[in-house]
Amino acid sequence: MAVLTPAAVKQPERPKLLQIMGPGLITGASDDDPSGIATYSQVGAQFGYGLAWTLLFSYPLMAAIQEISARIGRVTGFGIAGNLRRHYPRALSGGIVGLLLIANVINLGADLGAMGAALKLLVAGPALLYVALFGVMSAALEIFTRYARYVSVLKWLCLSLFSYVICAFVVTVPWAEVGWAVVWPPLSLTPAYVMAVVAVLGTTISPYLFFWQAEQEVEDEKERPGARPLIRAPDQAPGEFIRIRLDTYLGMALSNLIAFFIVITTAATLHAHGVTDIQTSGQAAEALRAVAGPFTFAIFAAGIIGTGLLTLPVLAGSAAYATGELFSWHVGLARRPLRAKAFYAVIAAATAIGVGLNFTAIDPVKALYWSAVLNGVVAVPVMIVMMHLSMRRGIMAGFAPPLPLKILSCIATIGDYRPRHGRDLAGIGGHDEQNRHDAGQLLQAIPASRHP
Question: Tell me, what CATH number does 365's domain have?
Answer without folding.
Answer: 1.20.1740.10
